[in-house]
Design a protein that fits this description.
Two copies of one chain form a homodimer.
Chain A: E1 5-10, H1 19-31, E2 38-44, H2 46-55, E3 63-67, H3 78-84, H4 89-99, E4 104-107, H5 111-122, E5 132-138, E6 143-147, H6 157-174, E7 181-185, H7 196-208, E8 215-220, E9 232-234, H8 237-263, H9 266-274, H10 276-285, E10 294-297, E11 303-305, H11 312-327, H12 330-338
Parallel strand pairs in A: 1-2, 1-4, 2-3, 4-11, 6-9, 7-8, 7-9
Antiparallel strand pairs in A: 5-6, 5-10, 10-11
Amino acid sequence: MNGKIIIAIDAMGGENSPYKNIEGVSLFLKKNYKKNDVFFNLFGNEHLLRRELIKHKIPIDKYKIFPTNTVVSDEETPLTAIKNSKESSMWHSINSQILSNSNITLSAGNTGVLFVISRMLLKTIESVSKPALAGLWPNEKNMNVVLDLGANVECDEKNLIDFSEMGAALYKALFPNDTPKVALLNIGSEEIKGTESLKKAHARLKEISIHGDFEFNGFIEGNKITNGESNVIVTDGFTGNIALKTAEGTAKFITDSLKKSLASTLLSKFSIIFSYFAFKKFKEKLDPRKFNGAIFLGLKGPVVKSHGSTDAVGFYHSVDLCYRIIKGDLMNKIKNNLSHINEDAK
Amino acid sequence: MNGKIIIAIDAMGGENSPYKNIEGVSLFLKKNYKKNDVFFNLFGNEHLLRRELIKHKIPIDKYKIFPTNTVVSDEETPLTAIKNSKESSMWHSINSQILSNSNITLSAGNTGVLFVISRMLLKTIESVSKPALAGLWPNEKNMNVVLDLGANVECDEKNLIDFSEMGAALYKALFPNDTPKVALLNIGSEEIKGTESLKKAHARLKEISIHGDFEFNGFIEGNKITNGESNVIVTDGFTGNIALKTAEGTAKFITDSLKKSLASTLLSKFSIIFSYFAFKKFKEKLDPRKFNGAIFLGLKGPVVKSHGSTDAVGFYHSVDLCYRIIKGDLMNKIKNNLSHINEDAK
């Protein structure tokens, strides 16, 4: 490692690749032209990549191309992927954390396959029982880290405690001036509510939080996720996935209903002109591309998953997320936080 | 029973009772002044009730007052309620389905206590393993029935199948011209996704749906709840509660963000005047008071829970829901649907 942050990019993963991937890298470099501490290891079809890199005038001292021959398809299943994808851009972009000097891997490809290969090549951190998928979610004050978003259908108290420490580490890496405030998602805020795993995790997190890795806000209900009082929301992968997608669906339902209402009268059509800038601001604030990028936590190397269907702007936000994760020293923060879990149980 | 629909009202439950409760009844009678088939059994403080009934000019042939002396407090726990609440308006309003002629009970009081007393007095239907709490939720086309919303933290496949049949019966009772379309909430739409209980319920519902009680749409993800393709959304009580409250929180977050954006520029403030009617229409469509009322399904008598903090308009919508449940012959529809569960397994 030469002091730079080295991001491995699976340039062939996701819709419209490698075009949006390289354009996303280009957007990142334009917005951060003063920063001299970033370098890209790019994995994919050499001919295609070179053409796009030239088109976007990306300086040759900013990247290295690692030619690969195959691409993991969306139809590939995690069961057969290990056998079928050894030559793929995804596989090599992950393995470059071991064979080359990459610090982090970014892919917009098949999520299940990315998870399985990452887990196999990078290995799970010894003290972590299950890795988790964490995402970003807007709240009234800034941003939440929410996990698990679907890596583990069933979770016990040990998993929930691991997720809390890893989520707090991620929050601190991304927002160094802010305190992580952990809450467990539940069907009530009283300590007697919920499953046995939740109750046990609650009791243990109260003890662990004295180490100061995070503040512990106890249980919160679904309607408090976005109020900003907590910023690390912990739950099992089944509930987390349903909550995230329900929020996405509700957001779409409400903005669609609003559009229909506004389009329904001539006066309100007229008003759209006046409120153009306000609506623009509103849309920008909640633009899902800004929250693009889910992070696999609990592996010995960090891996970020971009939405497959996002565009260059969305991919740029994932690149930026990778940069901030390494800049914020996520892996050491996780190690430090996890060391507190069993400390006072000795 | 004299051919009328007789609704028992716990007039003392919830904030601002009995004022909103009696005003809600009054609103119902005003909107349905042509209907001569409804009668109210009212439970609460006789003096207070009489004063409010006179104030709202409710005809004396529309109600009977059953005087009660105590009220279940919000602090009462389900554990101690059975002992403490035998003289309460809530208790008597439920028990009037057995001792008097009430067809259905409506309360805005303590949810946990209402559930425990209802279950004890009315008893669970023999073939149902666990009763569930069902709610209404707007979708792109009309309305969803969603259950369980929190009565059961953990559910097995038998429970999910019961919920599907009971939810389909409720949908048919409320929307007689429409076909119930059942879907199981899951983290993916493929048959291999999710917990073992979900997979088993999926296989069995595919078989049962040939009886024609409902169409079965398989698994859906959280972002499809509101698209209107399914209208009976079935899940365990933990997930259902989190999904409902996450949707509520997201709706609030988005409308708050929109208000802030619109209030931030002079031009857009001006535009609010032009779009007044459009915003009014939008707010009316999504007014949560229209969806006020959760239904306990699986007991031998129907019980509806109104939000404790709703106003007279919200309470009116719960009264209307009670009326439609009995008019739609819910209890016989449930009986009929449940009879199909084990039929072809013989």
